[in-house]
């Protein structure tokens, strides 16, 4: 993107020679509208074999605005009305009917009649497998338009599982150093971190990495492939794009042979200099674009210096964005990251401990019928701690959470203590571990300071781990003096 830097909010240069004329706007606008109205049923399931989708089905696209996409001079939103752009204008006919530098993209999709669009607003968290209406399982494609905040571990898991289970992921970068909110992470770092440090597959899952470059200006050209649906889709033929401060990716086909360069920087081909690239992962699809300038339509919220790359005659960026959205949204029969529903079930073995230690891995003797700490129901419970000496007790069970499911861990907890201080001397941690034994998340921590009479229900959302085999572990750690008992009963891991 033009003019972004790591020390100050991005400011783009005025590029009037490259700005569209009114005639170009009219002509290209007509092309986008006409192309958008063409049959989306031709969206391909692979790069060479288009399936036929049901005519009434709409492709569901979620645009992210939770990762500082409007920081500095960026305005990467389809509308200021979020999550639903239709609240701003239910029947948009022109880009300014919605406010945002991506409004042309959104309006073109909306006018086609084949897409249902939403935005994940600032302050929200990216999730997969939860009951939220904005959860990724409810969408076919997720667009990350120049994210400027690192995704959390749970968010990276959510995104990767979404793609693995059939979702489409549109990654849009900018040049290195374009840290618009000055938090130490630009889009190059955010995207590379997503691919290289996640709990699903960190071994170059998409077959490419983002180059730490700042290419000031270039007009990359598309490869010659008349059968490629991204370059020859229903929204028009793609001949090239534009770079106005951007970057490229290096392809690594040995890691993922599906990685493909679609549009290349001038003088480059093969595995280097790919400005627009596609790939697959699991049942899903991925597209990458190395600059946010091509998606910028030059209109947006006041106070931003924007540049109309969407209609720049040096590229066919509108067709590229729209064709790629159509291709991504057609993955896995347009079911997105939801593989087709989830059967309601309780997954934990021996959840109330009435079969003793069966199904659980536990410190010897903690699953018992002792009257010192009675069970909430039945005869058995898990009694961690209560010794008054320095030691640790653990209770764990491995479980596989089905892909596409909402998942919730619940249990009853009673805490009894001889401590009189509010200082946390003795603790109980509730954690999720991966198959290798590494801690993915600490769901909750309790201590002697939380002691109370009776049992209390505790519940945690595990939707981010759908499609994974994880271990749920309770760890009680006591100090060397007074006892604290952590008593657990009536556990449940429910999906549905």
TrEMBL record:
Family annotation (InterPro entries): Class_I_gatase-like (IPR029062)
Residues making up the signal peptide according to the UniProt record: 1-41
Residues covered by region (Disordered): 1-21
Signal keyword on record: yes
Alphabetized UniProt keyword annotations: Signal
Compositionally biased region (Basic residues): 10-21
SUPFAM superfamilies: Class I glutamine amidotransferase-like
Protein name per the record: Hydrolase
């Amino acid at each position: 993107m033009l003019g972004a830097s790591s020390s100050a909010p991005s400011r783009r240069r005025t590029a009037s020679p490259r700005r569209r004329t009114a005639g170009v706007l009219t002509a290209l606008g007509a092309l986008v509208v006409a192309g958008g109205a063409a049959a989306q049923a031709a969206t391909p399931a692979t790069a060479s074999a288009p399936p036929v989708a049901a005519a009434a089905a709409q492709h569901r696209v979620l645009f992210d605005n939770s990762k500082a996409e409007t920081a500095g001079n960026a305005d990467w939103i389809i509308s200021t009305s979020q999550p639903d752009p239709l609240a701003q204008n239910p029947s948009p006919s022109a880009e300014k009917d919605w406010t945002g530098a991506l409004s042309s993209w959104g309006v073109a999709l909306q006018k086609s009649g084949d897409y249902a669009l939403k935005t994940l607003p600032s302050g929200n968290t990216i999730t997969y497998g939860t009951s939220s209406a904005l959860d990724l399982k409810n969408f076919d494609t997720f667009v990350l338009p120049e994210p400027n905040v690192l995704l959390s571990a749970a968010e990276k898991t959510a995104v990767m599982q979404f793609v693995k289970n059939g979702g489409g992921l549109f990654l849009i970068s900018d040049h290195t150093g374009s840290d618009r909110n000055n938090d130490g992470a630009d889009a190059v770092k955010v995207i590379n971190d997503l691919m290289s440090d996640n709990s699903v597959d960190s071994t170059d899952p998409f077959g490419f990495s983002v180059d730490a470059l700042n290419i000031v200006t270039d007009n990359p050209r598309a490869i010659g492939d008349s059968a490629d649906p991204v370059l020859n889709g229903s929204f028009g033929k793609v001949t090239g794009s534009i770079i106005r401060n951007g970057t490229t990716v290096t392809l690594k086909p040995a890691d993922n042979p599906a990685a493909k360069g679609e549009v290349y920087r001038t003088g480059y081909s093969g595995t280097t200099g790919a400005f627009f690239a596609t790939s697959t992962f699991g049942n899903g699809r991925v597209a990458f674009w190395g600059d946010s300038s091509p998606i910028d339509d030059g209109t947006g919220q006041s106070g931003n210096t924007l540049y109309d790359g969407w209609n720049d005659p040096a590229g066919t960026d509108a067709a590229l964005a729209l064709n790629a959205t159509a291709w991504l949204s057609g993955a896995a029969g347009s079911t997105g990251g939801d593989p087709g529903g989830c059967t309601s079930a309780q997954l934990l073995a021996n959840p109330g401990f009435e079969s003793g230690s069966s199904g659980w891995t536990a410190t010897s003797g903690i699953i018992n019928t002792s009257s010192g700490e009675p069970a909430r129901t039945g005869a058995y419970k898990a009694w961690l701690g209560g010794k008054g000496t320095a030691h640790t007790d653990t209770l764990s069970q491995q479980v596989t959470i089905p892909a596409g499911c909402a998942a919730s861990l619940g249990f009853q907890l009673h805490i009894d203590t001889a401590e009189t201080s509010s200082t946390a001397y003795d603790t109980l941690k509730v954690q999720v571990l991966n198959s290798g034994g590494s801690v993915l998340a600490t769901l909750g921590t309790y201590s002697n300071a939380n002691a109370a009479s009776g049992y209390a229900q505790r519940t945690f959302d595990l939707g981010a781990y759908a499609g994974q085999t994880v271990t749920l572990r309770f760890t009680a750690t006591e100090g060397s003096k007074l006892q604290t008992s952590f008593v657990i009963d009536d556990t449940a891991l429910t999906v549905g």
